[in-house]
């Protein structure tokens, strides 16, 4: 899965689950300050990413995620360990 494909899927997740306009979901966008996610949304996002990758996300790793770009990197890391 390419970075662009991951970003497209993340945009779908944000739109479907958090009603966020996909145009706002850019790699530079800050999850909490710009996209207004809260801690419960972050847990929901982690669950959706686990469903997307089929891999479990370690909570201590996901705590470091701050931007959409960080989410993309986390998904790429999960997909690499899966291969």
Distance between the termini: 11 Å
Sheet bearing the most strands, described? none
CATH superfamily: ACP-like
Count up the domains.
Answer: 1
Shape: globular
Question: What class would the helix/strand composition place it in?
Answer: mainly alpha
What is the helix/strand order?
HHHH
CA radius of gyration: 12 Å
Low-pLDDT residue intervals, each spanning 5 or more residues: none
Mean pLDDT: 91
- Helical coverage, percent range: 55-70%
CATH C-level: Mainly Alpha
CATH T-level fold name: Non-ribosomal Peptide Synthetase Peptidyl Carrier Protein, Chain A
Beta-strand residue percentage: under 5%
User: What CATH architecture do you see?
Assistant: Orthogonal Bundle
E-strand count:
0
Output the number of helix runs: 4
Describe this entry's structure for a reader:
Helix 1 (3-18) packs across helix 2 and helix 1 (3-18) packs across helix 4 (68-82). The chain has four helices and no strands. The radius of gyration is 12 Å and the shape is globular. The protein has helices spanning 3-18, 39-53, 59-62, 68-82. Helix content is 60%, strand content 0%. The mean pLDDT is 91. The chain has a single domain, classed as ACP-like (Non-ribosomal Peptide Synthetase Peptidyl Carrier Protein, Chain A). The protein is mainly alpha-helical and 83 residues long.
Give structural attributes.
0% strand; Non-ribosomal Peptide Synthetase Peptidyl Carrier Protein, Chain A; 83 residues; globular; phosphoprotein; 60% helix; mainly alpha; lipid biosynthesis
